[in-house]
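User:
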Amino acid sequence: MDQPLISVLMPVYNGEQFLAESVESLLNQTYKNFELIIINDASTDNSEGIVKTLQQKDSRIKLINNKFEKGISGGLNSGLEIAQGEYIARADSDDINKSLRFEEQIEFLKSHPEVSILGGGYAPFNSERRLEIFHPSNSIELAWKFISNTYFCHPTVMFRKKVYDEIGGYINAKAEDFTYFSKILKKYKGSNLHKILIDYREHETNYSNTFKEPVLENVKKISEENFIYYNGSTNGYSQFIRFQTTKKLSPRDLFYLISINNRIIEKIRNDYKDSVLNLNYLFFRFNILFKLVIGIF
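Assistant: Predicted structure:
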């Protein structure tokens, strides 16, 4: 294999049930020049054995065995330390990646050098249902929405290795993706492809279910920190979050929130050194103003 262009990071903890299917969905990508770094986080099941069997079939697979459980953040940082690729891609050990995922993400990042982190659509599924979810593609809208919560599906994300080289790795937190990506978007532009990149498997042991309350507490903490960063204080935080999450506000808050949104959006544009008033930006400003006005009815 040539020097890999992409380093794929897949942490696994007791994931034997779906691991082989998930890995095969990566090995079957139409884009082939990548290394797959699987971080076995002290699993007590047969996850290690499954990876070793797959390694015999494909030399792109690398295995890191953590002697002690490090959690998702620690595991991902172990992978980042040895990653050779120009791009870092995330994958989970229970999802199914679409075969064109890497090809489409690389094509976008090469043609959009201003974007440093890219996610995409995902399809949550279980035995009873399958949905399709998409997040914003406009970089300013994405940063604006990221104040309240994450708008990247973590296992769809691909980012430039220079991001890690410049700001470091994941922070040990229950909402590790929201924490890390909030930090990234304060400096680098992001986007999302309006295409389904993975089938996201829902089951009882999903991380978001197992640690639901600690994750929600961490999300609130990071959300407040994001708001202070963009707004300069906590003034108006509750009104802003209520509007973002429900699209409702009282008439007396209309002009207050217009002022807050203007300040936040200009801060984002200044961070991105984005002085050009393009149509996407103008449409976003108009859309926010429109939603503020109809939010009082």
